[in-house]
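Session log. Operator J.P. requested a structure for one protein chain; no other inputs attached. Running the standard single-chain path with token output.
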Amino acid sequence: MILIVRSGYGILVDSLKVLLDASLDYETLTSIRKVIEDEPKVQAVTHISGRQSGRYRFIEVEVTLRVKDVARAHQIVTSLEKKVKEKIPFVDSIIIHYEPVEKKVLKYAFPLTSTSGNISPHFGEAPYLAVLEVKKDEKQVVKKEILVNPFLNQEKGKGIALAEFLVDQDVDFVVLKEKYKGKGPEYVLAESAVTTIIIDSSTLKEAMTELGIKELNEKRERQPN
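Structure written below.
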């Protein structure tokens, strides 16, 4: 009889431990993932796990970020940890580990006055954009697109809107002949670790030579529809 009672007590204690310190449910983990993925500078959530002890939740996350600067990455992670605690009840601790995105192909954007390849002196008012995908090590173009500026006819804020568009396109470098008119586009791009390069060249071909970028095979170029 004593043996049976002791066995029953042991099972009860083990069950309570499971209840009091259990893996976090799928719905909560999904909600946390969504909060993190809503941050534009998060490339991907590569791992997420959590446990619950009583009413409190302990979370661990791994992400890749579209950010090169370590200090900026730390700011983003700190902000994300705060957002998760604000939006998900009873999160006592969250640790987010981050890595920068390792890219083998980099994107360069050039504002153009026309599809013939003249560099526009105005960023937000450029009718077209040349976007080149360039192999990082070889500096060889693997893809070239000429895009229409979707914000050209916008009355205000076209420079900021275009900067946000290029961030969404995962551009790494914006190449200009002159500096931005306002601080808005520069701030948007810098916040997303997009580097601005000022050049002396007047045409796309000259700019590529100035930057040491090798030409693309003509068959792989794409013109705007």
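Operator note: The chain has two domains: 17-100, 105-222.
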